[in-house]
Amino acid sequence: MPASALAFDAVTKRFGDFTAVDALSFAVPEGSVFGFLGGNGAGKTTSLRMALDILTPTSGSIVVLGQPPSRENAAAIGFLPEERGLYKKMSVLDTIVYFGRLKRMEAGAAKAAAMALLERLELADRAKSPIEKLSKGMAQKVQVATALVNSPRLLMLDEPFSGLDPVNQAMLEDLIAEAAKGGATVIFSTHVMQHAERLCDRLLLLARGRKAFEGTLDEARGALPSRLVLAARMDPAGLPGVARARRLSGEGEWQEYEVELADGAPPEALLAHCTANGVALNRFDVHRPSLHEAFIHFVGADPATTRQETVR
Q: Where is the ABC transporter domain (predicted)?
């Protein structure tokens, strides 16, 4: 098992009578891309702020890069806050350099890294522009650059795709993947499931401050049965591995059925049985659960706080 870049042990955070994070335990392996998923108010931002020593836990313990949260970790961490905030009169280049210097970078190294990021983000021609002259999406990309400028060992991004159009969302996904390939541990929060499906090695699903699930994408989706639709000349209810079958439609010799498989029964085994035993099939479609469906299974449906969007 790799070491943990971030670990929570029974962490609780209360604000008066309100419990924002409730006995939360999880570990983020070094070098992984870790999705912190939940609806608005699930406790994502509060948890990240405790990891950054902006907030202090009411109880429990946190370890960040091998030590308790403190400002001593700042040079090794990049952070994109949910609430964006840049100095409006400062130029794009000076803004990124300023954040690099806060992370203990030398001025020359910070400027070189900033220009490289601006090229990568297609903002090099805006290097001298004041922040106030940028569009919302451009300013968001500058904010991303401030989190990346110091090539952090641990990169924490709170709702990083908010405010970006599909093209720039795709660019940010590529940057996250590149940071991970370069050895960084990446943690990002989101409530748009497709980003996590494409990027994450592991996931944490949060609901009302508590952990609903932690594991891989395959493990999350594997908690739900696959949906299988087949067209056959016979009722498939008696076939091995079939828990139940519901007739959907069909006239004549071919009938369509929605088939629910028994726990652990793979669709491939049913197909192999039909092939080996001469069971004629005219259709065999497997729908594997999406992360969005797994999220609803573990957390519950809340249209106001969880979205499934076409982003690429």
A: 6-233
